[in-house]
Specification:
Jelly Rolls; globular; 2 helices; seven-stranded antiparallel beta sheet; mainly beta
Length: 216
Amino acid sequence: MGPFTRMLTAALFAFTALTVTGETDILVNGGFESTTTGFSGGLIPAGWTLSKSFDTLSQAPLTLDSAGCIGLDSSSVHSGSYCLKMSMLRSNPDTNMYHGWEVKAVRNLPPAAFTNGATFTVNGFTKCNMPADTAWGVQIALFTFNSAWHGSWNDAYHGSGVSDWTAFSGPVTITDTGSCIMAMLIVLQHGIGDLWVDGLEVLAPTARIGGHGAAA
């Protein structure tokens, strides 16, 4: 093997050695530190959509504010200055504990990051003060729409009970067919009690080959 061949082989080996696989956080403001002013004049997390839905209000003497609330909290955070706090103040009068009776936070994600068969990791911290028997007290999930507007719900975490700040990590594999045209992270509380959420991440698979990044 001549000098030039040895140099070329070494260069190719060095280039190959730069191949790295990893994950990139595609969730913006998962720590709720960036804030804006909501319609009521209070602070809300920037980029997030907060909502309350109680389908059975006509069957009970409740208002939206007396049934549940959602917003930023600075008194009990995992890290930083703010976390998200969700509270269900009244039990669902229906026998179905969670359908149509919820407080919800939604954050859009870049659709281009979602490809069929890709596995994502949703990380974060929750603090709960809910009865242990609450059905699906909290759900954290990825929701996608494909080009045919078929929706796919993928749970990353659910739980209830009473706990201090606890880390969770949930893998989610996208198995829907067709190209993704809309994606979002959804945080739902269905059961009575209080829930705090902080430090959320949505890690998407990435590949770097020779210093150039591309989605896997």
